[in-house]
Amino acid sequence: MKYKDYLKDNIVSVLIYLFTTILLVTLLFAFKTNIYLLIICIFLLLVSGFIISLYSFLRKNSFYKSYLNSLDKLTEKYLILETIKEPTTYEEKIIVNSLYDINKSMIEAINEYKRNTVEFKEFVEIWIHEVKIPISSMILKCHNQKYDKDLLSIIRRLDNSIDEVLYYVRSENTEKDFVINEVDLKDVIRDVSIKNKDDLLLNSIDFSTSINSKSISTDRKWLEFIINQIINNSIKYKKEKDSIITISSYDKEDKTILEIYDNGIGIPRSDIKRVFDKSFTGTNGRSKVKSTGMGLYIVKKLCDKLGYNIYIESEEGNYTKVIIELGSNDLYKI
């Protein structure tokens, strides 16, 4: 706060003081007061007025300057009340008490929002589990009674979409769901391959793996979801014929590198940097296949939680390769 700004804010008080001073001087002059006494009175009035305004300015400026400096240094602005010095004036107390009331009201609103969100997520999880039971039954019935393969493919897509919702909801509170164990990567790939067997056969995709039997520390369920999402994308964006999906792994220093390759339609160069963005559908997702843009976003989020790096290499019209660096889990992120 500058002194001139303070005077502007108090312009009415300043004008009233000046008017009163002029009126008093006029009265003294009218009563033919000694000129020297008159000059002394004018000087004292002006000096005292200036000192009073300056003192009031300095006191307020000290409070607001400290407040603004603390606010500027804070990353979490809502913690400002923890840094404000003890108020000394009635005006400062009003400001600080108001901030306390606002902060209290906001905390209550946030807690209520959190409670509602938790309840909603719990409901979604329960609903998903209830829905997946009949879906699993339908898939089993399609296998046993040899229903139309297109119907089976539709049911599988529905099952995968429900999985996306479930894992997205759980990804907000992964610490409650992660179970880190030593798992064999080869077994994980085998289970994911079996899960996608029907879609691979229906789409006439040449599927092959070259996986070293290697034990890694991870949450098996989440890793299966990550790989399953990538394979689903490879199936979704395949070429019309001679489609290939290859999964391979190799060791690099203290990490295991997992590569998922397909010779599908590829990704435009302009979209590569944004494929992990939330709700980003890209050129392919808008023009060729309906997409929510959530699959790879959830995959990236889970990889970050597990401490894995994930990259995508692609050439439009030729291939897409997803590279996941497994190992060296940064469990502090969980």
Q: How are the SSEs placed, and which strands pair?
A:
Layout: H1 3-9, H2 11-30, H3 35-73, H4 90-145, H5 149-171, E1 181-184, H6 185-195, H7 197-202, E2 206-210, E3 215-218, H8 220-236, E4 244-252, E5 255-262, H9 269-272, H10 282-287, H11 295-306, E6 309-315, E7 319-326
Parallel strand pairs: 2-4
Antiparallel strand pairs: 1-3, 4-5, 5-7, 6-7
What brief labels describe this structure?
334 residues, alpha+beta, Heat Shock Protein 90, 5-stranded mixed sheet, two-stranded antiparallel sheet, 11 helices
Model description:
- There is one protein chain.
- This protein is of the alpha+beta class and 334 residues long.
- It has two domains: 3-85, no CATH class; 183-333, Heat Shock Protein 90, CATH 3.30.565.
- The chain is built from eleven helices and seven strands.
- The protein has a five-stranded mixed sheet with strand order 2-4-5-7-6, covered by helices on one side.
- Helix 2 packs antiparallel against helix 3 (35-73), helix 5 (149-171) packs across helix 11 (295-306) and helix 8 packs antiparallel against helix 11.
Rough outline = elongated
Number of strands: 7
> What string gives the helices and strands in order?
HHHHHEHHEEHEEHHHEE
Rg for CA atoms: 35 Å
Runs with pLDDT <50, length 5+?
330-334
Q: Hey, roughly how much beta strand do the residues contain? A: 5-15%
Q: How large is the count of helical segments?
A: 11
The main pleated sheet reads as: 5 strands, mixed
CATH topology of the largest domain: Heat Shock Protein 90
Question: Tell me, what is the CATH class of the largest domain?
Answer: Alpha Beta
Report the helical percentage: 55-70%
CATH architecture field of the largest domain: 2-Layer Sandwich
CATH superfamily of the largest domain, called what?
Answer: Histidine kinase-like ATPase, C-terminal domain
Strand order of the largest sheet: 2-4-5-7-6
Average pLDDT taken over every residue: 84
Task: Classify the secondary structure makeup into a structural class.
Answer: alpha+beta
Number of domains: 2
Compute the separation of the termini in Å: 45 Å
